[in-house]
Amino acid sequence: DRYNVEAKDAYKAAGIDAVLLSADKGSLLTAEPSKDASGGKAGGHEEAKLGIPIIIVPAGKTSLINALNVKELLEQGIFKTREQRVADGARREEKLTITHLEDGYNGRYKVVDSPQQMRREDWQRVVAVFVQGPEWQFKDFDLSSYGGKLVNFFGKVSAFFVEYEKTTRPASIEQWNVKVLTLHKEKRHMDEKIMNVFWDTLRQ
To answer: Any idea where the Cell division control protein 73 C-terminal domain is (predicted)?
Structure first.
């Protein structure tokens, strides 16, 4: 069983929802306090400080996925371009998190688009990265925990490349261990499939 039942029951008894993420990419436990009907924290428990898994997105304006639209895509299955999000009044959040409900437990993920600001220990918490294509995207990545090699990083972290259908794919994507997610320019009802493929891949 992917879940540690005893640990899960212990957190639940303490009023904390927890989700255990595992697979060959490592095991990370994230937790957040349950809330009572009034919106307050049940029992006054503090958030379990066990490390929130990190999802890295490109900072480049030409990337289809970025800090402005990744939350809506991965939480609601709705894709909007950066330009559409700006028109909606969206602004880059300094502390961006994504919540994903799985088996009744809330998994929380931190979104980062400035890897140069991450501490060395933060890299152990990276579970997913959205690849833009050019290798210069990784110039600020601390790969010391992965033998200094990008190929080792992709072997431990789920990597994704988002593209529109019928477009030319960068040659580098074919060389890396990357999951390609294809968007339809007009069929927005297909976006939910992209969201599901992302979370299914992360659980593998």
So the answer is: 53-202
